[in-house]
Design a protein that fits this description.
Layout: E1 18-22, E2 25-29, E3 42-46, E4 50-54, H1 61-70, E5 75-80, H2 91-99, E6 103-105, H3 117-128, E7 145-146, E8 152-156, E9 159-165, E10 174-178, E11 183-185, H4 205-216, E12 222-223, H5 234-257, H6 263-270, H7 279-296, E13 299-301, E14 313-315
Parallel strand pairs: 4-5, 5-6, 6-7, 11-12
Antiparallel strand pairs: 1-2, 2-3, 3-4, 8-9, 9-10, 10-11, 13-14
Helix pairs in contact: 4-5, 5-7, 6-7
The chain binds zinc ion (ZN).
Length: about 325
């Protein structure tokens, strides 16, 4: 990529092993590596004795067994879910059943808008092709407790967890803090190894950039993302992410001004150095920029009301 933060590799992953990654903080990585999940989903355990679990992870027997072993002797009192993608929330139902601990989240994934049927079909097609494996939705997840932005969700001995609503990757995405250690769990809002997929209609680029600025304005010392290594200078890192998105937006605007009226043509230009397998998700990312540009009035849809994958666009 042309700009953006420096991504670091996640070294030394042993699936299913419990690693103490920081004081009062353990992580178990699920064996669901992919081009969207990197090495896999990192599930976090906060505290000892009485613990909170962040993003129990995908419906994988090996991960369920690893969590079961990691939590032996602990009392789970809170299950925190950042959002309802299939690599984050599905095992919450099992863990709730097993421990009786309530689940906490901003809310369930919103139901699909009937107007988005066409987009959903396209999404389903991509899922069938295995292109967007992490993006399948866990519509079954409904939190026991809805956490408002800025609210303390749960506490235990030596730990306090607060919710920070960060719409963008999904509209219900919520980051959680571990206040005593200055830690933020950014879920998929900020990843340690790549940029985040922002896929309309639920994914929203304008909201995403606002939510990046929101977390950059906080004083958290370390991020522990679901995918990838910890981030130790998070404000600088997130500033670079914002910069990268704004640069991409300018490239999309320049492409439309230069006469490229359809998304595939814009993708072919802007992602010419990127593996073609990633051009479909790249198309959704370009769409997310176009939705923002249309809302802001610098681009319009030439052949309809709403910005869609198959729309034609023109500069205003
Ligand atoms: Zn996600």
């Amino acid at each position: 990529m042309s700009s953006g933060p420096e991504f670091r590799p996640l070294d030394d992953v042993v699936y299913g092993r419990v690693d103490e990654v920081a004081p009062m903080l353990r992580r178990v990585v699920a064996e669901n590596p992919s081009k969207f999940t990197y090495r896999g989903t990192g599930t976090y355990i906060i505290g000892t004795g009485e613990v909170a679990v962040v993003d129990p992870g995908p419906m994988l027997d090996s991960h369920r067994d690893a969590l079961h072993a990691a939590l032996a002797g602990e009392r789970v009192t809170a299950i925190l879910v950042t959002h309802c993608h299939s690599d984050h929330s599905p095992l919450a139902a099992w863990l709730h059943e097993e421990t009786g601990a309530p689940t906490y989240a901003f809310g369930p994934h919103p139901p699909a808008d009937p107007d988005d049927e066409v987009e959903d079909e396209e999404l389903a097609e991509e899922i069938t092709e295995g292109v967007k494996v992490e993006e399948t939705l866990d519509h079954a997840f409904e939190p026991d407790v809805r956490v408002a932005d800025g609210e303390v969700a749960a506490t235990g001995p030596g730990w306090t967890v607060r919710g920070v609503h960060t719409p963008g990757h999904t509209s219900n995405h919520m980051c959680f803090t571990f206040e005593e250690e200055g830690v933020l769990f950014p879920g998929d809002h900020v990843m340690g190894w790549s940029t985040t997929v922002v896929s309309p209609p639920d994914g929203d680029m304008a909201a995403y950039v606002d939510s990046l600025r929101k977390v950059a304005g906080r004083a958290d010392r370390t991020y522990w993302p679901t995918h990838g290594p910890s981030i130790d200078s998070p404000q600088r890192y997130v500033d670079a992410l914002v910069e990268h998105r704004l640069q991409r937006e300018q490239q999309v605007l320049d492409a439309v001004r230069g006469g490229l009226v359809e998304i595939p043509a814009i993708v072919a230009l802007l992602y010419r150095d990127v593996d073609e397998k990633l051009h479909k998700p790249a198309g959704r990312s370009v769409l997310s920029h176009l939705v923002k540009l249309v809302d802001e009035g610098s681009v319009r849809v030439a052949d309809g009301e709403r910005a869609r994958l198959k729309s034609r666009y023109e500069a205003v």
